[in-house]
Amino acid sequence: MIDYIEIAGVLDEAACSALCAEIRAASGRPAGLLGRDDQKPAWPEVRRTTRAEVSLATEGMVNDLLARQKAALERHFGLALGNAEKPQFLHYREGDFFVPHQDGNTPLIHDESRFRRISAVIFLNRQMDDPSPANYAGGSLVLHGPYSGPDLRVSMPAVPGSLVAFRSETTHEVTPVTRNERFTIVSWYRGA
Ligand SMILES: O=C(O)CCC(=O)C(=O)O
Ligand SMILES: [Fe+2]
Hints:
Blueprint: E1 4-7, H1 13-25, E2 28-30, E3 47-48, E4 50-52, H2 56-77, E5 81-84, E6 88-92, E7 97-101, E8 116-123, E9 137-138, E10 141-144, E11 153-155, E12 163-167, E13 172-174, E14 177-179, E15 182-191
Antiparallel strand pairs: 1-12, 2-4, 3-7, 4-6, 5-15, 6-15, 7-13, 8-12, 8-15, 9-14, 10-11, 10-13
Bound molecules: 2-oxoglutaric acid and fe (ii) ion.
């Protein structure tokens, strides 16, 4: 069993479109991997996506939104959560991806990721087989089941304005975008 929750409508359609436009227009740099300061250029064989620099107002709006979702996530996962980390505004172009990985809460590396308990992804545009220009194909967020069970893979529905959250130790990946551009916001709630 893969433990995740989908919360619909954390952003409305107009807010999603405005965020996509802001991220597209923003300057960005290749998104890196946590705990690696020596990335040149950001391990493109592991993760290829652009992290956009958005306005402080936008970042503040998303921080407030993440704080408002905390109680529902604590109830669902049975965890006491602290603050969400600085959100990342991600722009995936055709061919961009993130290989299977865990975001944290694994005793693997002695870095900041050990404080992460819950990963959250907010979808800003829609995945479709034959996408209109504002939407995309490919680019599935796929959660993997734990080793203790059957080889399970579950694609998350990419509905604009919805938030999907899962335990940060859950293996997950973003498959390559095959058409157009994909926009998401990601953050991580730490333990209380
Ligand atoms: O963009 C996504 O759907 C998820 C990205 C991700 O897994 C991450 O940034 O750790
Ligand atoms: Fe991740």
